[in-house]
Structure formats: structure tokens, C-alpha cells
Design brief:
heterodimer, A: alpha+beta, nine-stranded mixed β-sheet, five-stranded antiparallel β-sheet, about 30% strand, globular, B: alpha/beta, two-stranded antiparallel sheet, 13 helices
Amino acid sequence: MRGIISAAGYVPFRRLERADIAKTFGSGGGKGTRSVASYDEDTTTLGVEAARLARRSTPDGTEIGALWFSTANPAYLDKNNASAIHAALRLDAAVGAADFGGALRSGVSALRTALDGNGCIMTVSSDMRGGLPTSADESQGGDGAAAIVVGSDANGPVIAEYLGAASATEEFIERWRAPGSDRSRAWEERFGEVKYAPLAEQAWNGALKAAELSPDQVDRLIVTGMHARAVRGIAGRLGASKAATAEDLAATVGNTGTAHAALLLTNALETSEAGQVIALVVLADGVTVLLFRTTDAIAAYRPTRSVATQVANGGALAYGKFLSWRGQVTLEPPRRPEPDRISASVSGRSEEWKYAFVGSRDHESGELHLPPARVSRVGDAVDSMDPAPMSEIEGTIALFTVDRIAFSLSPPITFAVVDFDGGGRHPVELTDVDVDALQIGDRVEMTFRKLFTADDIHNYFWKARPVRS
Amino acid sequence: MASHGIKDQVAIVGMGCTPFGEHWNKGTDDLLIDAAEETFASAGIDKDAVDAYWLGTAMSGMSGMALARPLQLHHKPVTHVENFCATASEAIRNAAYAVASGAYDTAMAIGVEKVKDSGYQGLVGAAKTPTDGTGRTLTAAAMFAMCAPGYGKKYGVDEEQMREVLARIAWKNHYNGARNSRAQFKKEVSMETITNAPLMAGGLGVYDCSGVADGSAAAIIVRAEDAHEYTDKPIYIKALALVAGNCSGNADPAYDYTTFPEIAATGRDAYAQAGVTNPREQLAMAEVHDCFTPAELLIYEDLQFAERGTAWKEVLNGTFDLKGDMPVNPDGGLKSFGHPVGASGLRMMFEAWLQLRHEAPEERTIGNDRPLALTHNLGGYPGEMVSFVSILGRELG
């Protein structure tokens, strides 16, 4: 049996009230909220967070054989973004890492390719959606990521069996964006609606036939795509029961583009019982349909942090901050020098520390060293250290401070001295935090972030954020 | 293995110190020339009579030529030293040891920093060492800000009391600086103004932070037995102690930000070198590194001016005031002078030079006549710092 072994979504902490857009500009916006990636997140770091959660939900014996990353909003071109996720997960060098980049369709395409292929593959999809102020893309878009570990029985218990798939492809100009542009463009709505309808029918019928299912056997129906009107129309015409319609997270998260299919699939898996048929219909330059049936193993499956939990734990973000984080407005920076670009060779030497937050532990004194050291602080042993992976260890704030003058992409910087469970201390920058609510003794967890970008090089490292679930 | 020190082996026989401030019309070279000329005149010698030079600067020049060129030194050995904000102290430490060793008869230590040309707020480090980008980006203000809640928590000083204590330290230093023509800020500042100042980092407001200034200061060192050839009032070096921390504080869960172990260690070493057994009773005054007000509070205890957990009360009692029992920063400190990194250590010694020689102006004269003074200079942050302590005296023995 081949299918899904584990899945996790990542919804960034911040939420924008859509009504704030109209309050500011007199137009745009709408009801509900959308998720917003922090100023220190990009699609790669969102992907890392989803991948970490998925791995924590994956059985210990399951070995990831490849990592595939999809986004329509890559942090780098030319350079492989999956490699940073690979490094953050501390995967073996022999584990492949590849980008399925560019198109909104790449997310579901990578997932289908993994399902149709061999071995244990983690597919990570990630996106940050936006547009010009007051646009529908700005208000209805969302930021997020999802990671789905695909494999067979040999790799671990399969929680959702892959029943079959079909797709229908056609070239038409419906939604497009030039590289580097901060806005997508779309043709008038009716055209796309007309084009998608027959393609959906074709893929839907093809997938049901491959799986030997009829529409009324579908327990959970997910229809998603950036063309909201086509999605609504098609969902009602596929013949599944109305009760089967799955949550689309539109009211809380917004549409996370490349990531949304996997995010909704994850959310459905987290709320399904054994034996349920889940249909995933994705509209993106054609239509792709995937069919799954949850297995008995799903009863024992425990997601590390469910999508619903993350949706419920959002923090408000002022619209002005949103605009500045997205580069739509530029705020006065502190009068401090901007950081220099990082060194490729130094970063290369410290890959384990920088990307995977691996310290070292003196196996004579047991003392933890962050960053890793060759000479022990206690006992003075030389080259007597073992690697100490710390990215998944939580800690407690011993002291914290707010720096109103240091350079930051979004001042002020909040810094805390963190005592890690099981020993070890490190001063780290805090993120996703409301300073007024912060207290000594608060619990924090590590999170992979982008500290700054200089010379087009992103400086990725770890910060800490409050534990919220 | 021991730190023997060079008590009474060498003496300072001349000193100079430029005004500290925003010298928009003076460059590094001008400041060096001004400080050097004042110092030569103070010792009654010229540049050729100095056998070797030590130049301290952290970010305003590289190599000994940064001094040899502006002063036009002729075939003289010039050593450039850097040790963070303790750079000037490092310069005089090396110059003093060179004279004590017998290698030279006369040496000059000179420190300089031209900070105000960067165009940024605060100090901007000059080091451009390539990195992996994982280093802390906090300002020193934010790091030192953590000491206030750390101390308050440990000794039961609530936020309001702590605010008053820190403001009182700033108030005292500005009171002293208002009586010093060389200071950058020569005005008294009210407790109310200090308390209500805009926040910079943590609970620290503008007046909890030292200013940023340009400046230069210098000293001439000779063997103690030769000192009276230059002046009737030489100042003898009793102790020079230095520690470069191993940066373990921020990684040590036991560290609580209520002490600077590097400073306590330099204090113990300096007192042993000088034979000081009771600093509070034996020292006339101290110049300490008040880069941020919580630093000065902790330094009182690390240098044994007050028992652990009591310095905050002594601050409120006025112990460290100009006419108090143990005057600290009678010249106004970094608070009034700003902090040209490579010059501050020698600026501190300049105040000791004036006070021990009874040359401080009447309105800034300390209220006791003990023969010893201490200077303390640090570079770095809580948990990872360079610390320097000197003890100077006007009498041998």
C-alpha cells in the first residue's frame, strides 16, 4: 500500500483583519482574517517549519529518502531552496533535495509525482500570497506551508492510502506573474470559470474511474485553486454530498496558493476517521484530482500540532505593519549600519549550527556548548565533544530585553536569555512575540528564520518564539 | 605562575587629555597631535625623548603608523593595540611593562577614537571579519539592560526603586561632569529628566547610556627612580590587571547578570598587586566604566566598594558622590565624557592624575586625601568582556 505516512501544516502566527484594509483605504478587504508570514519568514522558512512538524509526526524508523520543495514565490532563483530545508532537518547528504519551482501547480504536481513514484519522499509546499493594497489577492491570499511524507508500508504505517489520480491540462492565460513582480494579474473571471469546468469534469471522472469509486462514496471533498469563482462552481457540480465539503480555511488563513492543497489535505486528515475517502481537486492551469482512503492507522496517528490549533493561535497584526513587511511601504529604520552579507565559506563550515541549530556536548563534563566549541568551558577537554541537536528542545526565558536601537527588519528587537530543558543556555532573538505580554519564565521553542538579506544572500538562523499550544 | 605586578617600578610623569565631544572640525590626527603635545609639555620633554610609543585605537586606524605619521616620529617603535573598550588601558599597560622591563627609559601610551564620523547612532564596530551571520545583533545597551532586572530580582529591588537607583547614578555623574571643562556634557540633569527620558533598550533611557564622543588622552611613563627628573608629583603605578573573558557567561545557566566575574577577578588581582586590603578605606576615588548605569551599579560590588546586594542603598545614601565616602567618577565618567573607545581608559587615569596631584578644580575636588586611586575600564558585554583595573598612587610604598 502506498500513501501518506504523515502530514503537517504550518500557519504563521500573525493575522490581518481584512476589515482593516477598507478602514485604511476605503476599499478592499472583506470579512475574517488572513495569515501573514512574519517579516523574518520567507517560503523557505515556512517550509522548514512545516517539514519539522511533519517529521515529528513521522515514526522514528521512517527514513526520508528525498525532499521536494514547491513554491510560486521562491527565496532564490538558480539556487536550490530545498537544500536549506534539507540542512535545517539535518538530513543525510545522500538524501536528495529538489525544487519544483515557479508555478502554483507545482505543489500538487510534486505530491502526485511522489505518490506515483517509489521510496519515502517528503513533499513540502509553501507560499506567501499578496498583491497591491486593496486587491482581492491581498485580502483573500494567505501565507503558509504544508509537508506531506509519502511512502509505502515498508517506510511506516500509511494513514491514507493513495487510490488514484488524474489530471487534465490545457494552456490558457488565466493568472500570471512575471519574475520579481509583487503582484499577480488575472484575466476577467468568466473566462477562467468556463475553461476550468470541463477540465475538472475530465480529471474528476478519470480519477474516480482509476479508483473504482462513485462520487457519492467521497466523504471529504476538497476543491481549491486561486480562481475562487471556478472553485465554488465546480465544487457544487461534482456529485459529492454537500456534507462532504471540507473546510477551506478562507475565513481565517486565506488561500495559501502553492501550499493550499496540501494544507487543506492535512487539515482533512487531522479531522478524519478510518475508512474515509478524501478527494483533492486542484485548479491550477488545468485540474489535478487525487483520491485517498484513510486507514486504521489513522486512529493511532497523532499530529504534532494540528492546523486547527495553529489557526486558533493567531496574533493580530496592524495593517501598516503588514504593508511594511511586504515592502509596500518603507518605514524609517534605526540609524544603525545595515548588516554585511554573510560569508559563504564561514556559513559552510558552520552548516550544522547555522541551519540545524546543533551545538556540542562535552562528553566528559556533559556541558552543552552553543555554538559548538572545540575546547570545553568546563573541564577544558579539547576535541571531546558530541553533536547536540537543539532545534526541537524547548526552553524557558531567564531574562529578556527590548532593543530599540539595533538594526532589525522590523524594530524593535526582543532578545531573551533562554535556558534549554535538560541544560544549556543561549541568548536568542525572539519572534512572533507581543512584548507587553512577555514574562520571565515564559516557555519558548526554536524556529527557523531569515535574519536579514544582504547582497541578495538570505541569512537564515534560528530564533525562539513562545510555545502556544 | 603568578601575577606579580610592577608596583612602584614605573611612574606617570606627564598626562594630557583633549576635550571629549563632537569634534566635527578635528580628525583622528588632530586629536592625537593635541593630546600628545599637551602630554609632552606636561612632562617637559619632546617627542624625540620618548623611546617607544603604544597607540590604542579600536576603530580609527591600523598599525603604529597611524601615530607615527601625524606626529612625524623618526624611526620610533610604535605598537598599535586594541582590546575593545579597554584599548587605552591596554596601551598604558604595555608601555608600563616595557619601561619596567628595562627595554626603554621613556614610553608614551596614547589612546584615540574618532567615533562621530560614522553617521550612525551609538558605537559602530570597525571589525569586518567575515561571519556566518549567526552572531548576536544586540546593542550593548540591550545587553546591559538585562542587569537591572537581574539585580532587582536577586536582591529584592522593585522596578520603581531600581529606576531611582539608576537615575541617581546618572545624576551623580552629570553633577560631576558639570564641573569639568573637558566633558562632552557639562550640565547637571535632574532626576526627573533622567527618569522620564525616552527608552533605548529594556528599561534603560537615554540618560542611562553613555554618550558618543571623539577624544584622545595620553601619558608618559618612566622608571620610578627617574620620575623626579620630570615632575615633583609623579604618579606611581601600583597595579595593572587585565582579564579577557572566555565568553562563557551567556552560555552558563548559573550566570544571573548580577555580577561581572571578569571585573571581580581584575579587582582581586589589582588589589593583590598593590597590597590593597580594604579598597573602600584605602582608595581616594575610582573612575569606573559607567557605559550604562546598571554597569556602574554592579561594578561597585565587583570591585568591593560595597557588599553584595547593598550597592543600590549606598547609591541612594550618596556614598559615591563627589564628596561622598568613596567618590566614583568624579570627572563625570563616560556619562559626561562620552566614550571614544580607544581613549577612555587614559581619560580615567587623567582624572586620577589630577585628583592625586591636587590639581582638580576646587568645585570638583573629592572630599578625602587618601593616596590611592583606581581606574576600571571594560570592553564587551555582560557574560563576555575584557576588564582592566589599575591602581595609581602618589607615594612610594
